Amino acid sequence: MNLRLIPSSIIAALLGLVCPATSPARGSDAKPNIIFILTDDMGYSDLSCYGGKLAPTPNIDRLAKEGLRFTQFYDSAPICSPSRAGFISGKFPASLNFTTYLHERRGNRDCEQVDFLPPSVPVIARVLKTAGYATAHFGKWHLGGGRDVTNAPPFSAYGYDEHSGTWESPEPDPKITSGNWIWSPQDVVKRWDRTRYFVDHTLDFLSRHKAEPCYVELWPDDVHTPWVPDLQRQGEKKSWQSRPNFCDVLAAYDVQIGRLLDGLKKLGLEENTLVVFTSDNGPLPSFNHERTGGLRGSKLSLFEGGIRVPFIVRWPGHTTAGRVDERTVLAAVDLFPTLCALTQVSPPAGITFDGQDMSTALVSSPVAPARSIFWEYGRSSKEFMYPQGAYDRSPHLAVRDGKWKLLINADGADAQLYNLEADANETTNLVGKNPELAKKMSEEALAWKRSLPKFPVPSEQTIFQK
């Protein structure tokens, strides 16, 4: 490692992990630290603990062994920007006019979506900051800024005390953004060292705020393509989307999660830190669904492989070590209200979440499904003819209600009904055998679609205080 590339404050913090400095202690009833790890493009079965065989992931598996693993967790979208908006706002992203990844202004208009997440939207970081948390965002943002969007609000507008953002953010870190793209060989911190860089920032931040609770979003851009292994592993030149490169990058990513967990222990923060680990959407490429565990679909698809991803939580003394919850159906929009409940922090007055408090499932016992979850991906067939393979390309709308999932286009065409308890891979369309149920769920999905705000947005008030 070239120490000249690492800020002196981070070096000092890492040295402190060996001989931690004393700092004011917080009481046993102190609010927990929260580290929200949002992996980029991780498939349902990339991890060994979810049946993956591409590369061993002992450190993330350790997180599952010491915590709680869910098998039915859903992102809010099968692509990054709307998915991330759903996590931090507790709102279905289509209600915020997010339906695909943010790109150039013209492209956003063509896709009928906003250029950035308006700062008037209540988000986790700002609410926790108001309650006394130190807050930070390290890693990918992709909720505004980059390309030709130059007026996106700064990180501080969303409640972050510190930040290190990638290219698609309002304030990209110059050490990882030498060019106007995801990665450049001229970056000071190379592609294969970026997760290490974000983990270093996280540990440094925690070491400087031990006397107060911390909320940290650690959002690496691994395991998103391009897959660029370190120089030692690169060997002969390979495609940046090759299977060997993915295996190397996944293994290296797991090592960095291990460094994070070890760092928490050395800092004396392990016992009162809630770690949340998940992914923003399914994988692409999926290696013929190997990365989805056989689930149909991939990133860019509302079939299960595009929206069902790993979800692991560890909070010593609260989550039951080694438990696997196969019953609870969790959604990304549940994170905000759940964290409010776990930290005993009141959400802003008047806010209406699309998610619900699922803290019982995280610390006690499974919760039976009792609500519908909605998705919209794309509003124009011209812009959303992806994935390329017809088998994985889904209709634009979806709803899950109990064990049933229905997909349908906004014009009412191509209705597909699946019993996920019996057919998680969505191979048998049951519309013909269950016409009344299909009609009911179709009407539910289409009514939800009609309830969404029109584009262009008439005013922020219409969307965010509905």
Describe the overall structure.
With 466 residues, the chain is an alpha/beta fold. The chain folds into 2 domains: 31-371, Alkaline Phosphatase, subunit A (3-Layer(aba) Sandwich), CATH 3.40.720.10; 373-464, Arylsulfatase, C-terminal domain (2-Layer Sandwich), CATH 3.30.1120. Helices cover 27% and strands 14% of the residues. The protein has helices spanning 8-18, 58-65, 80-89, 105-110, 124-130, 194-208, 231-234, 243-266, 304-307, 335-343, 359-363, 435-451, 460-464; strands spanning 33-39, 68-70, 73-74, 134-139, 162-165, 214-219, 273-279, 311-314, 323-325, 330-331, 372-376, 397-401, 404-408, 416-419. A hairpin with a 2-residue loop joins strand 12 and strand 13 (404-408). It is globular and about 60 Å long.
Write the topology of this structure.
Blueprint (H helix, E strand, L loop, with lengths): L7 H11 L14 E7 L18 H8 L2 E3 L2 E2 L5 H10 L15 H6 L13 H7 L3 E6 L22 E4 L28 H15 L5 E6 L11 H4 L8 H24 L6 E7 L24 H4 L3 E4 L8 E3 L4 E2 L3 H9 L15 H5 L8 E5 L20 E5 L2 E5 L7 E4 L15 H17 L8 H5 L2
Parallel strand pairs: 1-6, 1-7, 2-9, 3-10, 4-5, 4-6
Antiparallel strand pairs: 2-8, 7-8, 11-12, 12-13, 13-14
Helix pairs in contact: 1-6, 2-8, 6-8
